[in-house]
Amino acid sequence: MDPRPAMLTGYTVIDITQFVAGPTCTRLLAEMGADVVKVELAPFGDRARVQGLKAQNAAKDAAPHSTYFFQHNHSKRCVALDFKHPQGRALLRTMIAKADVVVENFAPGVMARAGLSYEDLKAINPRLVMCSISLAGQSGPLADRPGYDYMGQAYAGITGLVGEPDGSPAMITMAIGDVSTGVSAALSVVAALLHRERTGEGQHVEATLVDTYFHMHEASVPRIALRGGAYEPKRTGSQHPDGGPTGIFRCGDGRFITLMSLAHQWPQLVAAMGRPELLKDQRFATPGARKANNDALKDILEDWLAHVGTREDCLAALEQERVPAAPVLTLNEVVAQPHLKARGTVRRVHDPAIGSFDVPGMPVRFSAWAPDAGPKAGRLGEHNEEVLKGFGLSSGEIARLYAEQVLVRDPALDAAARDGAPSPRPFAS
């Protein structure tokens, strides 16, 4: 483990989030050194605990603990309380009063109704940075809409552009918007902390799925603004709408590659195909012409690829002329890639109840610091006593909160303390 402190060491973050977007934000902050206290709501905790794979030998009364929860919440300390109980909310205020950051992803209005709005919390902690993550923001016509990643895709015009031209829109089934919103939120929190260091001023930061997804339109928004109804992006299936050629193409063995040929690389692609006559073909003489004749160009390219042979043969022929191309890999192939394992992109972790498995690693690298090689994910309420004593509560006060069911804790933790931790067994979905 790197002996140097991580960049955010010394900052305390109160994490009141569930599922993916909020937990991604706070996990990144935790990995970079912040003390992130994940506050889960009684009686079930983060709903993500029931997703993914779980230990097959878990006790019947144990709170759920899964690979899904581990991936998005490792490196944090876990506290569990009854958010609806007045003492639970009072306990949250006690913690937030001494924290640097609070991150929440309730529907807009929930925190305010609980007396935990930014204005409420600013009154007890003027230096607080609060980050609210939601579908569409804290204000505006869509602010009261509940929703997840897929709703953000739809509202931001992403879903409508994915799929075959003559078919229905297709769903992106990875949590691209959730994770990207979490990354944007983490960046914003760090920027707000830097602002606070310079000015002493805390602030309220918002991150939304709709805003994050809309930010991904890299070229079409100005075209719509300038051309209005004369320009309407359409679904183009496996091919990029601007031609190139750029898209996904079938090789002779039935597998696929993705290829991107910018305007200045067209001669290189022609050379790779051994078809110099295409440089004089008026259908492909300019980028605009290639875009207009994209279907014909796809046929020519796939006919050549079919004769070249396997996916590896096709990639080798393109690499010889420095044409950007890559294999379309299955996720199983990706996880097995030596390159990703060497960089820690595929990261092996171990959980006492679940066993050893892979999760995605940090998406960035730092020259002055390396992430923890053995991150852990807490069970429900595992760190109640440890955390709350750090915020000034006595053992007696904590015991009373347990007695009044303000605090909850996974019964398996007490069983493990008595009997020893269970050895990992095969997964159960």
Sheet with most strands: strand arrangement = 4-2-1-5-6-7
Low-confidence stretches: 421-429
Please summarize the sheet with the most strands. Answer: 6 strands, parallel
Strand residue percentage: 5-15%
Structural class: alpha/beta
Query: Nearest-angstrom radius of gyration?
Result: 26 Å
Count of DSSP strands: 13
Protein architecture, described:
With 429 residues, this protein is α/β, with parallel strands linked by helices. It folds into 2 domains: 12-214 and 341-428, Rossmann fold; 246-250 and 256-327, formyl-coa transferase, domain 3. It contains 18 helices and 13 strands. The chain has helices at 21-31, 67-73, 86-97, 110-113, 118-124, 149-155, 176-199, 209-214, 220-227, 266-273, 287-292, 294-308, 311-320, 331-335, 338-343, 384-390, 395-403, 411-419; strands spanning 12-16, 35-41, 54-55, 77-81, 101-104, 129-134, 203-208, 246-250, 256-260, 325-327, 346-351, 355-360, 427-428. The strands form 4 sheets. Strands 4-2-1-5-6-7 form a 6-stranded parallel beta sheet, with helices on both faces. A 3-stranded antiparallel beta sheet has the order 8-9-10, covered by helices on one side. Strands 3-13 form a two-stranded antiparallel sheet. A hairpin with a 3-residue loop joins strand 11 (346-351) and strand 12 (355-360). The longest helix has 24 residues, at 176-199. The protein starts with 11 loop residues before the first strand and ends with a strand. Mean pLDDT is 93; it is low at 421-429.
